[in-house]
Amino acid sequence: MTGVAPANAPAVGTVRTPGVTTAESPLLEVTDISAFYGRVHALKPTSLHIGRGELVTVLGPNGAGKSTLLRAITRLTPASGRIAFEGRDVSGLPTHRLAELGVIMVQEGRGLFGQMSVRENLILGAYTRPGGDMDKQLGRVFELFPRLKERIDQISASLSGGEQQMLAIGRALMAEPKLLMLDEPSLGLAPRVASEILATLGELNRQGLGILLVEQKAPLALKLAKRVYVLSLGQIAAELPASEIRSHHDLARYYLH
Amino acid sequence: MADITQLLQSLITGVGVGLIYGLVGIGFCVIYNASGIVNFAQGVFVMLGGMICHALLTRLGLPLVLAAVLAVPIVAGIGMLIETLVVRPMWNRGATMFAIILATLATQIMIERITILTLGDQPRSFPEFTPGGPLKLGDIAVGYQLFWILGCGALMVGLLWLFFTRTRTGRALRACSQNREAAALLGIPVGRMLLVSFALSAALGAVAGILVTPTQVTAFNIGTPFGVNGFIAAIIGGFGSAAGALAGGVLLGVLQAAAIVLFGAGFKNVAALSTLLVVLLLFPSGIFAGFKGFKRA
Fold it and tell me: Is there a cis peptide before residue B134, judged by omega within 30 degrees of 0?
């Protein structure tokens, strides 16, 4: 997959100056982001970062605030705190402006336009790239997900769960994102289909795409990730390299089995 | 009891008026699909279409074609003003849908008052687009304006179809109607789509108003009956479906015409509201969504 950001060295551990664009600026840097649902403090001040070309996984049980975190970053849910993308403060930007910059999210439940065909969903994915070579972009998506080509004129609501997830990811890729955020992409899928989709995400990441992957239980996701944030009760309980999660008995028992 | 010729004559007129209801109904759907807002100021676009076209004809002395062509973008602009001055500020502040809908109703009343002050309160009309007629089919007379309504109605529906399926903005509007959050996540400016929907909806109303005025009169207060009947047409068709609203409008127009002939003019609104009640009772999702009967979910 071309058209995504080139693979730069992950910026984990580098010194960063907020608000200044430098080669070392992480792709996404979230500082003290916090969100409420009514009077419920669903996301307590939380900070995280994703390096360029890095795949980071956020794990957490149901209700830990994972979806709220992604919704807060994309401004679907009002939130306080600072968000910087490629070193630029984007805290005040609305959802669609973030998408224009290259921050694309695949929602839990896939968020497809159910009454539209696969083709129309994909074309809408390229909304922020008017005048782009649509056939070339479609060709790239079909290379990753050949099944979508077979279903091109089918109404998207009639696709199987796995195909719908492929379409949701394919549609996101049509926008040529720099950062792809996915909210529980393997939810409700057969294990074989889930691993197929996660393998594709791994391939996209190897080609340089920054990915923030949110999962509830994810032995597969952990194989792909370099770093893991564990979210619990609306805040980050741990940040550690994915390879170390096995050495934490409690975490390994919950998330790997 | 009316004879068959009289009934057929009325039904043909009913089809014409029904198409106008259908266009107003589509206007309701366009805004509702983009935002979830039911714009009760929809009827004033019909009134403004006729009134502004008449003003351009009589006060500026423009030819009918030019007056009609100019009136549509002017009304579309007024639709955009309503969105910008009334709906958008409330939408941005997170006002409840109920409050926004009430505000559109207040806007209708305000525009009616402004119309009285600027254009007057007297009913008025302008000539049919094609002079002469009517066309005689046996004992039935069909005015040329009906053909204009049919032709322009079909053209509008065709253009709308092309707009919604072939253009970037049209597709984006449909995306907003199905999943506003997903649309925003793909970079579609959902707020701007609301503005587009008001412009489009107002233009549709204006076309309806210009087409129907030669067959009757227009005045500051015709917005309410057209708005109510357009709203019923949209509900019959399953609120949100453009094709459904058009078919619902024709059905409503024909039923009203039949009721007038069979029971008297006083039954026009009775027919419309009875149709609404029957549809809501038996087909709560519109007559094209299938019979729901008295089954409980």
Answer: yes
